[in-house]
Design goal:
- The protein is mostly helical.
- It has 36 helices and 4 strands.
- The chain has helices spanning 23-30, 35-49, 57-70, 78-88, 95-103, 108-111, 117-130, 134-147, 151-167, 173-182, 189-202, 211-225, 238-245, 250-263, 267-278, 283-299, 305-313, 320-331, 341-350, 368-375, 382-389, 398-403, 413-421, 430-444, 450-459, 466-479, 489-494, 501-512, 515-528, 532-544, 552-559, 564-578, 585-594, 599-609, 617-625, 642-657, and strands at residues 14-15, 18-19, 356-357, 365-366.
- Strands 1-2 form a two-stranded antiparallel sheet. It has a two-stranded antiparallel sheet with strand order 3-4.
- Helix 3 packs antiparallel against helix 4 (78-88).
- The protein is elongated and about 85 Å long.
- 47% of the residues are buried.
């Protein structure tokens, strides 16, 4: 197994943490008769030699020895070694790694019939990925399926068939026939579910017409047959910890995730499938469904009231993991969580201990159930938030959730002012504490809060950016308070030559309405400022209306060059000042396609323009007809703002209704 291992100059090779001189010990550890030693060695391979999927020169040097280990029947846990080889040879690892594994792919052929189920399971996908003989691979899979009795190996063979269909479309007919056969009796329900998922990915025309009811029925049958295993305790290693964190029915979750991924934009079918999953009598099925729903909600637009209500129904059970999953998903839905608001309120009422989440380090934060209730816009969150504002320590982020309640949160204004007034100005966390409270004061336009906001603006200390951060937050708050903020005018004037100049000029306009003072500042920031500063100046100029007519040439020039955001802001300001759509609409049209993140601003402006925005109504109509959220990436991953997308849709409807 280790012939030649000492001839490799491991000390000259590298892995994630430097010299690879420890690698021979790891390789020998993989062959140890002691289970803990093997797992520690595997942990080391993934933690350094193949760290986070990376491939180093030491990784490539390991490949021949890993193949030798995989081929020796006396070596335990060879399935894990084959999995490591598959990971090393993944396409994302690079051509050299893939070539190294392909060079030894013949080793996988006898492993397909290995006495160990774990080895057979890992070898199935390896054959498809690395052996360049499609006819041989399909024959091996066909023969193995005919005699295989281990259900987990059957699932791996089914996944391998699906991969074969996608990799070799010209030779896929036989594999598709095998999948179609596996999708029906007498195969066990798990295998049939797996076959449906693979058909949906590679040959959707072969799916049954009643796909969703069939999948739900198979899920119930599979769950009813499933019994808990008696796994040995996992070692305290990276690999062991990952295994312990996996859901108790990872296999079932994988089967349904595959089907959801294959259905992709068939949103109605996916909703029906989720409803079926959420109605399962088995807790693990429902928990998996809750987590799967998050990707669907983030990526697609639809009427989600049925699955959201069912997710809300999970909050009343005794299973902490299911409840926490449901809370986590609902808290990200904002107004879309309204069908679950009664369940959120019931949980908030029954469990005051969940109002606040306490971390090992750092300040406490608002608990998930209360956060979800507030974000749904439900006024029943207000009395509980009032109680938390009266406590000695206010949970971090509370003010940001007050914003979601709109005017319903008006009774909280005195308490918010009080907490603002108690922030120690010399504390390092002053800006962090003030930001949520200032956001709430701004949303409520609480004119009585001027003294507290002005105190922050005057007294924030220098150093570490604290004054800068607090100043910007406070100026934004003063901007919303109108003439009530006149007392702040002297302080705002002193900011007209700082990086907060555009913001301060806007707040000064709100307080005093003196265009002679603020217009030169905003013109300077528009023409000489860059990025965010120029955008802010354009936005503030638009608020001046006719008083800013002298800025029209500069705004028109700004609307014709630069990045999409800057052009959009300048065009929007031009419209507000001149009321002329002719130079504005082409800018909006180009920015709409170039940067989807500008669409919310553009749609809101078109809604305000009324009939003048009609030439762009085709964009709004197309947006409303698009099923995918405007900033979503396929798969439901990444940063997606559901609330922002819902506001975009609302503004599109408003603009079209006012045509």
């Amino acid at each position: 197994m280790f012939t030649g291992i000492d001839e490799v100059d491991w000390a000259s090779l590298r892995h994630a943490y430097g010299s690879a001189e420890d690698v021979p010990g790891l390789l020998r550890g993989l062959a140890s008769p002691d289970a803990t030693e093997r797992e520690v060695a595997l942990d080391g391979m993934y933690g350094s030699v193949h760290h986070q999927g990376n491939v180093y020169d030491s990784t490539l040097a390991c490949v021949p020895f890993l193949f030798a280990l995989a081929a020796r029947p006396e070596v335990p846990d060879r399935g894990a070694i084959v999995e490591l080889l598959v990971s090393i040879g993944a396409e994302s690892a690079g051509p050299a790694a893939r070539a190294a594994v392909r060079a030894g792919a013949g080793t996988f052929v006898p492993l397909a019939d290995d006495p160990c189920p774990g080895v057979r399971r890992a070898a199935a996908g390896a054959l498809v990925r690395f052996l360049d003989e499609p006819a041989l691979v399909l024959g091996l899979l066909r023969r193995r399926i005919a005699v295989e009795r281990d259900e987990q190996v059957l699932l791996a063979l089914t996944a391998a068939l699906g991969l074969f269909v996608r990799r070799h479309p010209a030779r896929a007919a036989g594999a598709v026939d095998l999948l179609a056969a596996q999708g029906g009796p007498p195969h066990p329900p798990g295998t049939r579910l797996a076959a449906l998922g693979q058909l949906a990915l590679g040959a959707p025309e072969r799916l049954p017409a009643d796909l969703v009811p069939t999948a739900v029925r198979l899920l119930r049958e599979r769950s009813g047959r499933r019994t808990a295993g008696t796994d040995r305790p996992e070692a305290d290693t990276l690999v062991g910890r990952i295994r312990r964190l996996r859901p108790s029915d990872e296999e079932g979750a994988y089967l349904l995730r595959t089907l959801h991924r294959a259905l992709d934009d068939r949103v109605a079918d996916r909703i029906a499938l989720l409803v079926g999953q959420l109605g399962s009598p088995v807790v693990t099925d429902r928990c998996s469904a809750v987590w799967m729903s998050a990707g669907l909600f983030r990526e697609w637009r639809a009427d989600f009231s049925a699955p959201v209500a069912l997710i809300g129904a999970q909050l009343g059970g005794a299973e902490d993991q299911l409840r926490d999953a449901a809370v986590s998903v609902l808290a990200e839905l904002f107004r879309l969580a309204a069908p679950a608001a009664d369940d959120l309120h019931a949980l908030v009422t029954a469990r005051p201990d969940l109002w606040v989440h306490t971390w090992e380090r750092g300040r406490p934060s608002l608990g998930g159930p209360l956060k979800g209730l507030a974000r749904s816009g439900d006024p029943r969150a207000v009395p509980v938030l009032a109680q938390l504002l009266a406590r000695p320590v206010v949970p971090g982020g509370l003010g940001f959730e007050v914003v979601q309640l709109g005017r319903a949160a008006a009774p909280l204004a005195p308490a918010l002012r009080h907490r603002l007034g108690r922030i120690p100005l010399d504390a390092p966390e002053a800006a962090e504490s003030a930001a949520p409270l200032l956001a709430a004061v701004t949303a409520l336009a609480d004119r009585a809060a001027v003294p507290e906001v002005l105190r922050l603006l005057r007294g924030a200390p220098d150093g570490l950016g604290a004054r800068e951060a607090l100043a910007g937050q406070a100026v934004r708050a003063l901007d919303t308070l109108g003439t009530a903020a006149r007392a702040a005018a002297p302080v705002l004037r002193r900011l007209l030559d700082t990086r907060h100049a555009a913001l301060a000029a806007g707040a000064l306009w709100s307080a005093e309405g003196d265009a002679d003072v603020v217009l030169p500042v905003l013109m300077r920031e528009l023409t000489l400022g860059r990025g965010h500063s120029a955008r802010t100046a354009a936005e503030q100029l638009g608020r001046l209306g006719a008083a800013a007519r002298d800025a029209l040439p500069a705004l028109r020039a700004a609307a014709g060059s630069g990045r999409a955001w800057e052009r959009t802001s300048a065009a929007q300001a031009y419209w507000r000042i001149a009321g002329d759509p002719e130079p504005v609409l082409p800018v909006f049209r180009s920015a709409w396609s170039q940067n989807p993140y500008t669409r919310g601003t553009i749609a809101a402006c078109l809604a305000a323009m009324g009939p003048a925005g009609a030439p762009l109504h085709d964009l709004l109509t197309a947006e409303l007809a698009t099923a995918r959220r405007h900033t979503a990436r396929p798969g439901g991953y990444g940063s997606h703002d559901i609330a922002q997308d819902e506001r975009l849709l609302a503004d599109c409807r408003t603009a079209l209704a006012g045509r």
